[in-house]
Amino acid sequence: MTSKVDEALSYEQARDELIEVVRRLEAGGTTLEESLALWERGEELAEVCRHWLEGARARLDAALAEEEAEDEKRSGA
Question: Domain count of the chain?
Fold first, then answer.
């Protein structure tokens, strides 16, 4: 579950932090506890990114549907 602070992150902020989390996990050298905390943070950030992308997809779908409806009106279908 994402926090209110996470919900305020822009897509770009969440993506950039997620990239850093992945980099740190791939680099290794962290304790098990640190690795788990990083993984959990990564999951939260991925959810924020998913939320933004789903919203963008919905906006695109709505715009395309509106354009299609206008095209049908113009063509008399």
Answer: 1
Domain residues for the domain of 29 are 10-75
Q: Which two tokens stand for residue 12?
A: 């770009």
Nearest to 21 by CA among 35, 38, 36: 38
Rounded to two decimals, the pTM is: 0.78
4 located within any domain: no
Q: Quick check: is 65 in a domain?
A: yes
Rounding to the nearest 10 degrees, give the CA dihedral for residues 24, 37, 54, 11. -50
Residue 77 DSSP code: -
Per-residue pLDDT tens over the stretch 2-40? 677 677 999 999 999 999 999 999 999 999 999 999 999
Inside any domain, residue 2: no
